[in-house]
Amino acid sequence: MTAGPSAPAPGSPDRTVQAVPTGNAVLDRLRIGSAPDSWGVWFPDDERQVPWRRFLDEVADAGYDWIELGPYGYLPTDPARLRDETGRRGLRVSAGTVFTALHRGPAVWDETWAQVSRVAGLTRAMGARHLVVIPSFWRDDRTAEIIEDPVLTPEQWRHLTTGTERLAREVRERYGLEIAVHPHADTHIDGEENVARFLDATDPALVGLCLDTGHYAYCGGDSVRLIETYGERIGYLHLKQVDPEVLAGVVAEGLPFGPAVARGVMREPPGGLPALEPVLHSAQGLGVDLFAIVEQDMYPCDPDRPLPVARRTRRYLRGCGA
User: Which positions are tagged coiled coil (predicted)?
Assistant: First the structure.
């Protein structure tokens, strides 16, 4: 298999938006993969989740070459063992993922770095170059208990932006990885207003964005417009769609993200929003190599459900040219 994409750091001068291809254009700048999330995996260990060997077998069977690590500890954390398990299935790792609460200020740095360093070390050892950074939730993902105010104070925004820049700098210098901050439902970086505020306040040479099409639509954002406006900041993609009818009920009832997923708010393409083909063409138009990782978000789910969905999704993306 070929080596992973070597996209320039966010803010590099060659990350200019080109004309968006139309028709049956080949999306040759996108590296399509999937993640444990598409198999209903949200936690390192949960009896309702498929065993990790089954995930690796099925993600390869579905036609994907790239995977993410998922929650740290779900896949083997010994690099030699994980390289053996992935290599004999023709798989490679595109990124690791961490959760952070940097808006809480310097007091959380040591705890944050302890978690980040474990994931970053394994990510680097697997030959990947990206670390997806997800902000902490402001309400409990299962119980809907309000943990924090959903609106940050100016001081908390400063902690968030400066802390993220510090994290990006440390991760790059120590591990050679680039971070991609992931706007996420029920976090302080969610829809258009907060994403723009975050990007405008952080250094584009350090902080990239992981555009998750499903989460951004869930929070009212337009993925194509985000790519057109902040294309130089897009360092990574997550692909998913929302069901607008289910989402309307979720919003009306004020459901947290976890129960919303259990209700089916995320659906396989092409049945939801946003339409993925225009997003893919816009991303291709950036003129850089990007990972585009499918994340189906369907925890918990029947263990026999993910593979057929994954196969159909891969077939759909091939039909889009990816």
Answer: none
Indicate the pLDDT class of residue 142, thresholds 50, 70 and 90: confident
> What phi and psi values does residue 15 have, to the nearest 5 degrees?
-90, 60
Q: How far apart are CA 186 and CA 144, in angstroms?
A: 10
Listed residue (55, 54, 59) closest to 34, CA to CA: 59
Q: Please give the Cα distance from 70 to 224 (Å, whole number).
A: 26
User: Which CA distances in Å does 1 have to 18, 65, 74, 90, 236?
Assistant: 28, 9, 24, 7, 20
CA dist 124 and 74 (Å) reads 17
Residues 6+ apart with CB under 8 A from 293: 32, 33, 34, 35, 66, 68, 94, 95, 236, 237, 238, 239
- Cis omega before residue 300 (within 30°)? yes
Q: Bigger pLDDT: 144 or 275?
A: 275
- CB-based burial of residue 72 (10 Å sphere; 0-12 exposed, 13-18 middle, 19+ buried)? middle
Condensed to tens digits (0 to 9), the pLDDT of residues 44-56 reads: 999 999 999 999 9
Domain spanning 30-319, CATH architecture: Alpha-Beta Barrel (3.20)
Q: Are 64 and 93 in contact (CB under 8 A)?
A: no
Measured at the CA of 145, the angle between CA 140 and CA 147, to 5 degrees, comes to 70
| 3-class SS of residue 82 | helix
- For range 247-267, the mean pLDDT: 96
pLDDT, mean of residues 224-242: 98
Report domain extents, the chain: 30-319
Of 199, 116, 121, 118, nearest to 157 by C-alpha is 199
Letter for the amino acid at 274? P
Helices (H), the chain: 52-61, 79-87, 109-125, 154-175, 192-200, 213-218, 223-230, 244-253, 257-263, 276-284, 306-319
